[in-house]
Amino acid sequence: SLAESVGVLKELEGKKEKQSHKDATQGQQSLESTDSEESTKPETNGLDPEESDETKESSQSIDLSAASDDVLALIAKLAKDMSKSMNAEQIRRLCEVYSLLPFQADEMINAFATEASSRMRVLEDLSRNQTFDDL
């Protein structure tokens, strides 16, 4: 599903950010160890081509994260608006997917909880008047 795919993308993005940070830390350590060598190298106006690539990757990562959050928010809003017409399996699947994501969809979860409580009250009222076999 779309939400599962977005979740996988966000997870991969998080791993990529950790790797980029690790690479940057290692790069910083190697830069510190080669300070004396820099005086013999030609000047590059302070721009490191690798640093530029890292900046681009970081920017792309931020853009991907923002786009993922936007998609998840739209799905959650749509699910919240449609909660009254969704069956129990659909609600369960969405709750399962969103519980695995590092994304908060409190309004959707509250709408699902309200809908579940409402359905339970209807069933309880019906059970007082009829047996479950009649339902």
What do you see in this structure?
The protein is mostly helical and 135 residues long. 79% of the residues lie in helices and 0% in strands. It is built from five helices and no strands. It has helices spanning 2-33, 35-38, 49-81, 88-100, 106-129. The longest helix is centred in the middle third of the chain and has 33 residues, at 49-81. The protein is rod-shaped, with a radius of gyration of 25 Å.
Name a few traits of the molecule:
mainly alpha, 5 helices
SSE diagram, text form:
Blueprint: H1 2-33, H2 35-38, H3 49-81, H4 88-100, H5 106-129
Helix pairs in contact: 1-3, 3-5
How would you concisely characterize the structure shown here?
With 135 residues, this protein is mostly helical.
Element string (H = helix, E = strand): HHHHH
Distance between the termini: 33 Å
Give the number of DSSP strands.
0
Rg over C-alpha atoms, rounded to the nearest angstrom: 25 Å
User: How is the quaternary structure best described?
Assistant: single chain
Which descriptor suits the 3D outline?
Answer: rod-shaped
Uncertain segments are: none
> Helicity level, as a percent range?
over 70%
Count helical runs. 5
Major β-sheet profile: none
Class based on secondary structure composition and strand pairing: mainly alpha
Give the amount of beta strand, in percent.
under 5%
